[in-house]
UniProtKB/TrEMBL annotation:
GO terms for biological process: coumarin biosynthetic process; response to molecule of fungal origin. Belongs to the iron/ascorbate-dependent oxidoreductase family. GA2OX subfamily. Residues 176-282 form the Fe2OG dioxygenase domain. This is gibberellin 2beta-dioxygenase. It catalyses: gibberellin A1 + 2-oxoglutarate + O2 = gibberellin A8 + succinate + CO2. It comes from Salvia splendens (Scarlet sage). The lineage of its organism: Eukaryota, Viridiplantae, Streptophyta, Embryophyta, Tracheophyta. Pathway: Hormone biosynthesis; Plant hormone biosynthesis; gibberellin biosynthesis.
Length: 332
């Protein structure tokens, strides 16, 4: 048995944030059956208004496609540290280990962050540790998930009665879209919980800056979302489903009708967790403004006008947990 002394906890793990352990499993995550399109679009809009988050089942994505990518990801993270480091440090793309972003954020996580923009995705020589099989599996997975996300955005615009067709879905999954893809690996962590009642943070609280993110993880717990009442809710893992989160850009495009969801990952001392997230972002020069067909008469934008490129730049100057939209709110 490995005994972890208090001293080790204080020295080796001092750079990582912790949070008070919660044992409650949240049972209120909205579940959307994608095979019933009429009901699905209503539920999606309701969920985006209330939680900025929902789980999609019967989504039609091949489990084999997902399993192959997961297995390639597991093999990648099992490589010797030196080998993985040859594809890093992430800046922002590439292999990263415990450092998140450029401004000193840390987490108990190692990851691979890739751009899905054709030119950047193909910059394989920069990432020598990524095998042909992993590139291929990631490419197939990204195409399938981007298509699913486009479908969800179509449903949202249909349900909200906004047009023209493709005004939302046309922004993601296109050649010019600035989307990215991330594989995260949370190693099992020292059992801090037993020692102190606190857990290590794998990925600190934040909102995603893009339009919508699509997350799939293996059957290991850890993802938490912040509810409107301010409490943290632990999302039960489900490796057969996809979790959709509203990002800051969609909050602006709906003029605050949808709220980007704060989320974080808390580590687990027993199971390692592998997650794969597709962040659907718009083209760099796209203006992020409320969709005019959604605005009621006399309604004003809550935000100053900005492009995705400006927002991204500002995001990369911020820390993970910052309220990034605050800088762009109109002062009343
Ligand atoms: C600390 C940071 C990491 C991040 C860029 C940032 O400066 C603030 C936003 C972070 C985030 C969160 C969602 C995604 O994981 C991500 C890729 C993104 O687009 O914004 C990360 C950025 C990152 O890890 O590079
Ligand atoms: O790994 C996860 O489950 C979530 C990570 C996340 O929120 C992110 O990478 O932006
Ligand atoms: Fe996130």
């Amino acid at each position: 048995m490995v005994v972890l002394s208090k001293k080790v906890v204080h020295t080796d793990l001092a750079n990582f944030q912790t949070c008070k352990s919660t044992t409650d499993i949240f049972t209120g995550v909205p579940v959307v059956d994608m095979s019933d399109a009429i009901t699905a679009k209503k539920l999606i809009v309701e969920a985006c208004r209330e939680f900025g988050f929902f789980k999609a089942v019967n989504h039609g994505i091949s489990p084999e496609l997902v399993a192959v990518l997961e297995s390639e990801a597991v093999d990648f993270f099992a490589l010797p540290q030196q080998e993985k480091d040859r594809s890093g440090p992430a800046s922002p793309f590439g292999y990263g280990n415990t450092r998140i972003g450029p401004n000193g954020d840390t987490g108990w996580v190692e990851y691979l962050l890739l751009s899905t923009r054709p030119g950047l995705m193909l910059h394989k020589p920069h990432f020598p540790a990524i095998s042909e099989n992993l590139w291929f599996a990631a490419g197939e997975y990204i195409s399938a998930v981007a298509k699913m996300l486009k479908g969800v955005l179509e449903m949202i615009s249909g349900e909200l009665g906004i047009g023209p067709r493709g005004c939302l879905s046309g922004l993601v999954g296109d050649e010019k879209s600035d989307s990215c893809f991330r594989l995260n690996h949370y190693r099992p962590c020292p059992n801090l919980e037993a020692l102190s009642g606190w857990n290590l943070i794998g990925f600190g609280e934040h909102t995603d800056p893009q339009i919508m993110s699509v997350l799939r993880s293996c059957n290991a717990p850890g993802l938490e979302i912040r509810l409107q009442n301010g409490s943290w809710a632990s999302v039960p893992s489900d490796q057969t489903s996809f979790f959709f989160s509203v990002g800051d850009s969609l909050q602006v495009m709906t003029n605050g009708r949808f709220k980007s969801v704060k989320h974080r990952v808390v580590t687990n001392c027993l199971k390692s967790r592998v997650s794969m997230i597709y962040f659907g972002g718009p083209p760099l020069d796209e203006k992020i403004v409320p969709l005019c067909s959604l605005m009621e008469e006399g309604e004003e934008s809550l935000y100053e006008e900005f492009t995705w490129s400006e927002y991204k730049k500002s995001a990369y100057n911020s820390n993970l947990g910052d309220d990034r939209l605050k800088l762009f709110e109109k002062i009343k």
